[in-house]
Amino acid sequence: MLYALFNSLKGLDFPGIHLMSYITFRAGISFALALLIALIMGKYVIRRLQLMQVGEVVRNLGLEGQMKKTGTPTMGGILIIISILVPALLLGNLSNIYMILMLVATVWMGVIGFLDDYRKLKFHNKDGLKGKYKITGQVGLGLIVGMTMWLSPAITVRENVEIENFGNHEIEVIHKAENVKTPITTIPFVKNNNFNYEWLTSWIDNPETATTLGWIVFVIVVIFVVTAVSNGANLTDGLDGLCAGTSATIGLALAVMAYLGGNVIYSSYLNIMYIPGTEELVVYAGAFLGALVGFLWYNAYPAQVFMGDTGSLTLGGILAVFAILIRKELLIPLLCLIFFVEDLSVIIQVVYFKFTKRKYGEGRRIFKMTPLHHHFQKDADPSMKVALPYPHHGIPEPKIVTRFWIVSLLLAALTFVTLKIR
After folding, report:
1. How sure is the predictor about 122, in pLDDT bands with cuts at 50, 70 and 90?
2. Other C-beta atoms within 10 Å of 315: how many?
3. Minimal CA–CA distance to 407: which of 380, 373, 383?
4. In the Cβ-directed half-sphere of 269, how many Cα atoms lie within 13 Å?
5. What are phi and psi of 170, to 5 degrees?
6. Rounded (10°) angle between helices 308-325 and 77-91
């Protein structure tokens, strides 16, 4: 809105009128505004949630300090969503297809998370919204994003190409002359870092059919990424500040990638594909990071408010869609490794428990408790058969969270490093 207003006044000559043309300026203001909204509204939202008796119902699982969290207001994800949407709507270019998709993803996943939390609190049902409905919502968002990227003429890329100068044997990176519509993405360890999903269907004789099937494969991958990352973030939200801090690190890494990939000069210098229009996502990322930092003010240990599924499902969906839009979805397994490890820990625990119960007549466990962060928090129980009892004594919650943050920073750094190893 403000962006459109300032854009319409470009013809006037007064100081500062052109500042809104700069991505970095709008991103900085977006970050600051989101942070202020979260800080100022935080106390009001917490107080309202307390008056509405929207408190967390905690089961006694034998974790240190766990029962003290009973009654702490949940659904604080509403604060995150508002703090993202207001700056994005005010400072973003609302005609940009990438910005539109991010706003849709935010609202879409926010509604799913809100319904999940609402059912938990309304009916005192710990499971909340049935899994099939959550999966349906996540698949729906994946379809919207994937099909839009396939069919929208505004979403194109310009592939990077290396040309060797035989005179001095230097390598020059250029981008192809025209923007093209193709299901191409970024992968590490290979020349130019590019992978085209159409290569998977190139064995088909009919080029049009091969291209169509390539896009279908891409849409399926999009659906899988959105579902996996959203659920992973949801499982990671188990300790004060854990999901918010980890998501902020991932969001910062994706923001840098969006800025570099949306600038033809930087993308040429770094030998990565140029994606016109994605630089606008940096403005959204500014709001995203500001909202998370502001939320951490109240969510850091000991938490005054929890984000609930309203926040965690939304954060996962946002990060997944953001990565997909900048063609970095295949880097997600490394960048979001904490989310996937949390997912896998639950899956491995359940499968192993059922297998050992059939084989030995009693279920056994790999971890002391899942998701994985609770494994580090829980004391070892000699009566429980656990394959990995280490650490024998639970680690304090703030230390676990800080260590997970450090690991997420390391993963973000490694993600960038892999793009230069070829």
Report:
1. confident
2. 36
3. 373
4. 6
5. -90, 150
6. 40
Confidence grade of residue 125 (pLDDT, cut at 50, 70, 90): low
Residue type, 51: L
Domain spans of the chain, in order of start: 26-157+202-333
d(CA 210, CA 213): 5
Scanning the structure block, which residue is given the tokens 């600038």? 263
CA 414 distance to own-chain centroid: 17
Q: C-alpha distances in angstroms, 407 versus 14, 400, 411?
A: 47, 11, 6
Residue with tokens 């996937």: 340
CA 77 to each of CA 28, 39, 51, 216, 292: distance values in angstroms, whole numbers, following the listed order: 22, 14, 17, 33, 10
Residues 28-53 have pLDDT tens digits of 999 999 999 999 999 998 888 887 76
Q: What is the mean pLDDT of residues 55-67?
A: 59
Task: Measure the CA–CA gap between 237 and 235, rounded to whole angstroms.
Answer: 5
End-to-end CA, the chain:
43
pLDDT digit string, tens, across residues 132-189: 899 999 999 999 999 999 999 999 998 877 666 655 556 666 777 788 899 999 988 8
* pLDDT score at 134: 92
Please give the pLDDT value at position 14: 62
Say yes or no to pLDDT of 21 above 90.
Answer: no
| Structure tokens that stand for 83 in this block | 């703090």
Residues 6+ apart with CB under 8 A from 144: 101, 104, 108
Q: What is the DSSP pairing of strand 170-175 with strand 184-186?
A: unpaired
**pLDDT for position 268:** 80
What pLDDT, on the 0 to 100 scale, is given for residue 15?
A: 62
